[in-house]
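Bench log. Compound arrived from synthesis this morning; before running ITC I wanted a structural hypothesis for how zinc ion sits in the protein. Inputs:
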Amino acid sequence: MTDQNTPQNSPQSETFSDRPLRFSIPGRSARGRAVRIEDSLADILSAHVYPPAVEALLTEAVTLTALLGSLLKDVGGELTMQANQGQGAVTLLVCDYRDGELRGYAQYDEAKVAELPPEPSLFGLFGQGYLAITFDRRTQNKDEPGGRYQGIVPLEGASLAEACEYYFAQSEQIPTLIRTARGVVDGRPVAGGFLIQHLAEGEEGRERLHVRLDHPEWEHLRALAETVKPEELGHPGLPLEELVWRLFHEEQEVRIEQGTMLRKGCRCDPDHIRSVIGRFPAEERRAMADDDGAIKVDCEFCSRQFPISLVSLEN
Ligand SMILES: [Zn+2]
């Protein structure tokens, strides 16, 4: 044990809600993230009145979006998670992350959701569904793969977290453990997430020559990481440094760094919407407008409607 991995006690070094904590264990070629979301989550959930099963699903999806998004290192990078399934109780689930901004919403069939058991499986929620995870990396580093990369995995496991683990194993060949938890504290929703990955020789790129899901270092870290408890993940008063410390305090060195603050954000700016609609030919715009001469554009992320009058577009 060295001073390097002792959490400092000054208030600014402690990370609580709506800010991911990045950590790495250099001696074991591992990196991880821990996050707890409160205000950002409440803002996202408040846009709609969701049935409990859908709210639970969206909460897990937003938590995972915060975790996976915090893996992006460069400004402007984006992470999107989307599940579409026309036949299921949940017909659309979409979340994304960009520079600390999180948003997400779900569409569902009310009658089918009403028939779900209290703890529905992913199959119960989606039927035969798929989860698309898209990383859009805006890397400035020439040694790192940049650009847009999408992986699609079946929604088959017990949870979305499991589907994300499968994504990393299949699409990126990176052994990954992910845990999430959610609850209600003082009447407000709170959720927590934890991710740890084993990287090839400390590299963080996608290209790997050898993949060993049974690497002894990974088995060791996995065994430690699996002891994380849902009540630790979802406990707003427990600093994330303390959570990481409890799991890995016997490691020679654990490096920690605070990530970008998280907040609910959206891109439904009226000026932007107006400029997008303004690019349509006048005839098409008239066809889109209602009897009052306004084109109504919905933002489902925010549950807001933006009426754009045809007259205002003509100048
Ligand atoms: Zn919006």
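What the model suggests: The CA atoms of residues 7 and 192 lie 20 Å apart. Residues 1-11, 205-209 have pLDDT under 50 and may be disordered.
ITC booked for Thursday regardless.
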